[in-house]
Specification:
Elements lengths: L1 H5 L4 H16 L8 H8 L6 H24 L4 H22 L4 H16 L5
């Protein structure tokens, strides 16, 4: 989150910075996907403590994105947060599985279109 906060001066810019930070992560030599996604795949029981921790982490990420959507003045901050979180998750898994490390750039283009629709730009 610190890198995202440093990546943009406004909440709107920070929403896009989420994908810039993801791109930096994907480009690291030691990128093996999301630890939480990888871990939850190994624990199929619904109520294991490890599974709950993974779910909580993902919930915190979405809550952070939601807070940025709300601060930016999104017409439907929860809906936008859900869309952006899904783009981020999809980009992460795709980068891991396909080794296409441009997925965050692709997701950012889609995120920008969603953000532009949900948050009016003030000139």
């Amino acid at each position: 989150m610190r890198k995202v906060e440093n990546g943009g001066k406004t909440p709107r810019a920070r929403l896009l910075a989420v994908f810039d930070v993801a791109q930096q992560w994907f480009n690291q030599n030691n990128f093996h996907g999301c630890l939480f996604i990888n871990t939850i795949g190994e624990f199929s029981d619904k109520d294991t403590p490890i599974r709950q921790i993974c779910k909580e982490y993902k919930k915190l990420v979405k809550a952070y994105i939601y807070s940025l959507c709300k601060q930016a003045g999104a017409s439907d901050p929860l809906g936008l947060a859900e869309e952006l979180a899904l783009l981020l998750e999809g980009a992460t898994v795709t980068a891991q599985v396909s080794q296409n490390f441009k997925t965050a750039h692709i997701a950012k283009r889609a995120a920008k279109a969603l953000i532009d629709k949900a948050i009016p730009v003030h000139h």
